[in-house]
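Notes to self after the Tuesday call (sharing in case useful).
The group wants a holo model before anyone commits to mutagenesis around the pocket. I volunteered. Ligand is pyridoxal-5'-phosphate. Logging inputs and output together so the record is complete.
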Amino acid sequence: MTNHLFYQSRLPRPDLQKAEGIYMWDTAGKRYIDGSSGAMVSNIGHSNPNVLAAMREQMDKSTFGYRLHFQTEPSEALAARISGLTPEGLDRVFFVSGGSEAVESALKMARQYALTQGEAQRYKVISRYPSYHGATLGALAITGYAPMSAPFDPMMKSMPKIPAPRAYLDGMDADDPATGLHYANMLEEKILEEGPSTVLAFIVEPVGGASTGALVPPAGYMQRIREICDQYGVLLIHDEVMTGGGRTGRFFGAEHWDVAPDLIALSKGFGAGYVPLGAMIARNDMVEAVLDAGGFIHGYTYAGNPLACAAGLAVLEEIERQDLVGNAAAMGDALTDRLQALMQRYPVIGDVRGKGLLLAFELMADRNTKAPLPVDLNAHSRLVDIAYENGLIIYSRRTRGGLSGDHFLVCPPMSVNEPQLDEIAEILERSMQQFMAENPT
Ligand code: PLP
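Result:
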């Protein structure tokens, strides 16, 4: 094992040998179920033969054409395909290589559009706490997750935040439209506090990702957010990096509420683990205004890479051919049933939530008060380690500060079937038994 390579920590991990469908094998021959699709990325499963064939075919033609020199057929075809899936009027696609880049691009498009409208005083981007929008400094400035942003705070322009609507922690009924209004109106209050003419945009994950553990907005929230943005001339950015591509049971997460944003950030399931790929999708009139004013001052060398776009196109074709969006909805319901059954047996599971196959459960010391488990129990990493030992990969986060506990995302590829869900449920059960044996209450 080399020590030249490093990531966040010294955490040793086995070498990956191969992966197929929802399964992965290390070089020692141990099999794992990819119960989190990596980081909610491998949405169509590993080693899909049609995607691999499309990539090989493209490799024989070209693997790079710099965008200032050439247009490529796969990038044009993919942009056209994506625009067929977006809300009307949101048809312009700017390719990038990942989620942080997609978010950065949306921020810059918003700002440049405001300049074309004579609104140079608009620069503030309101976001939520907790939230995650990326690791680059621009995306981190609007990310509501102190453990990742705190060391860099002095290097970033501090941006305003409102609380994410964690109705379950506040003892509110998420199905009651009054709850949605209560949380959405916090955006209006923040806009008024900041000065409406200074606010450029609001960014929201339609269903929360790792930061909130698959938080589903309360009834009416997304619609009211749209109204408020319209009222104050604030651009609405949907961060669909994790939700886009079908994971929630609709191609875009926001389709559940029938709300169209002004800008969309897309990645993860778009390249589905085959290639680094993302996109920023913008309103047609915004793009025209920015291009008329001299051009979009932004770009990445690898944007629109033909190999990445050919893979992305093949991923979309597989999603449609196998109706993976429909399967995510159906298997999401079936997995929710299994997680709720687990919750019945383990009182330490205080909440099960999510949409489609973007699902999470949260451990709590007390279901009624929602008190989190003690921090030194390190439940978020311990349960993940136990499951990993047992051959199941799940993804966890502890949102420190406030009344939020350890949550675990269970998000297998959208190609998963019922017998495979049974395997996942069986390993989760075994892992919970071990966790409880280590931590008797
Ligand atoms: N936005 C959301 C909602 C995400 O979940 C992530 C990654 O987890 C990002 C942005 C950043 O994406 P990337 O890690 O590809 O830069």
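Two things stood out.
Residues 39, 98-100, 103, 132-135, 205, 209-210, 239, 241-242, 267 surround pyridoxal-5'-phosphate (CB under 6 Å).
The chain has 14 helices and 14 strands.
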